[in-house]
Design brief:
about 450 residues; alpha/beta; Rossmann fold; Protein-Tyrosine Phosphatase, Chain A; 3 domains; seven-stranded mixed beta sheet; 15 helices
């Protein structure tokens, strides 16, 4: 089969393309921005890429068009209009994945506002370490594998289950297509303000996911999350495994000890001990979720703990990009206020008390651009010594929003202005923590270059 993918350079669609190619299909695709590293990865797989969404791509005559959720109706996407006018076959990315990859597999789906990529990567690595040869599709690049997706030779398939909408013609969340036997509900907060009116609307989508899990399936749920308890109160027909309880709870998994070295308890019984390289309570909770999910396919907590000792995390998760003059520059994907706060806290707990954190961020997600959660930013950044925000592309005033932080907050008109402001303040021993769900205008390289000539 020849498939042509619209929006192929997105993380999800690029992973789907890699799976389709591995399965033996001819794959071509297009996107508005065909650039490295995704373009290089796809071309290395023999996938022909076209810049833009021109209607002339109908001449490729694929058997099926697979439509990414970046595509909308109208003049920006003449190829989509041509497909509709010609009555040609098309489907969404999640639906194609369900029909051609997930059918007949034991799907383990990881959902949640935060930690999906890290937890999915942990779970895939645990199953790999146990010899189960899982397939996986992750919204990042797990360093234990070096690729974001593969078919796998085993019966299980681990997938990052996003609540964002499927396509312009299917406004359900992507994850309702995956039909998991094991579903992880990691956490739930308001996000994606461009498509969801409020938290209740997202809870409804999460319950749609719950409805798809079979009676013999397992739902792994964070015991601390009130929103998830509301979701499950609407109806639950599967085995429930809770994790993260703050006190002893029969059958639930919880942690005892520091995030870098902790015992895993089921009720009062110790079932494993995790000693690994990751920091932060959020990663401790992610580990508990992965352990509980892996147990559903026969991997013991002890085996999971052994795998996690060798886990290398995902690129762009507190990734050290370089060090100049005793000043470290990190890259992190955090963009929601809760994720920013968690990331800053995780770094704070691993550095010396006298060392400073300079938090450098851009409100780039649709939710943050709309200003839906801007009031939470001072709370998110309160543990940083200095905070630097990129004003570029925002319709709201970042300086006013960050006023509660006083002189600790500095706003730049664009990335270059931000770099200049950071360099003026940085001194040996500082940690420059760059946070964005995009490329942030190459700020990491710009900071390292500027520090080298300071």
């Amino acid at each position: 089969m020849h498939i042509h993918i619209l929006g192929i350079c997105g993380t999800f669609m690029g992973g789907l393309a890699a799976l389709a190619r591995e399965a033996g299909h001819r794959v071509t695709g297009c996107d508005a921005n065909v650039y490295p590293p995704m373009s290089d990865q796809l071309r290395a797989l023999g996938i022909e890429l076209t810049e833009g969404f021109g209607a002339d791509q109908l001449a490729l005559k694929p058997d099926l068009f697979v439509i990414g959720n970046v595509v909308t109706r109208g003049e920006k996407f003449p190829l989509m209009e041509a497909i509709l006018d010609a009555g040609l076959a098309y489907t969404s990315g999640p639906q194609w994945l369900s029909d051609h990859v997930l059918q007949g597999r034991h799907v383990l789906a990881v959902a949640g506002t935060h930690g999906k990529t890290s937890t999915t990567s942990m779970l895939a690595w645990i199953l790999e370490h146990a010899g189960l040869q899982p397939g996986f599709l992750v919204g990042g690049v797990p360093q234990n594998f070096g690729v974001s997706a593969r078919l796998g030779a085993g019966a299980s398939f681990v997938i990052e289950a996003d609540e964002y909408d499927t396509a312009f013609f299917d406004k359900r969340s992507k994850f309702v297509h995956y039909r998991p036997r094991t579903a992880v509900l990691n956490n739930l907060e308001f996000d994606h303000a461009d498509i969801f009116a409020d938290l209740a609307a997202i809870e409804t989508q999460f319950h749609h996911l719950v409805r798809t899990v079979p009676a013999q399936g397992r739902i792994v749920v964070n015991a601390r999350e009130e929103a998830l308890q509301r979701v499950l109160s609407r109806g639950c027909w599967s085995e429930l495994q809770r994790f993260g309880a703050r006190k002893e709870e029969p059958g639930a998994l919880r942690a005892r000890g520091e995030p870098q070295a902790f015992d895993v308890l089921r009720g009062s019984l110790k079932v494993a001990r995790v000693e690994w390289a990751l920091y932060g309570e959020h990663n401790q909770l992610n580990a508990l979720a992965a352990i509980a999910a892996a147990e559903h396919v026969g991997v013991t907590p002890e085996q999971s703990a052994a795998a996690l000792a060798e886990f290398k995390n995902v690129r762009r998760r507190m990734e050290l990009r370089g060090e100049v003059g005793q000043i470290k520059v990190y890259d992190d994907f955090a963009h929601h206020p809760t994720a920013i706060r968690t990331t800053v806290n995780g770094l704070r707990r691993r550095i010396a008390p006298i060392e400073r954190i300079l938090a450098i961020f851009e409100p780039r997600s649709n939710t943050m651009k709309l200003g839906a959660m801007k009031a939470q930013l001072p709370w998110a950044l309160e543990e940083a010594d200095l905070s630097f925000c990129n004003q570029q592309g925002l319709d709201w005033d970042a300086k006013d929003t960050l006023a509660p932080l006083g002189a600790q907050a500095i706003v730049g008109a664009d990335v270059d202005a931000l770099v200049a402001a950071v360099i003026k303040q940085a001194k040996p021993g500082d940690h420059l923590l760059c946070m964005s769900n995009g490329g942030f205008g190459g700020i990491h390289e710009k900071l390292l270059a500027a520090l080298a000539v300071k």
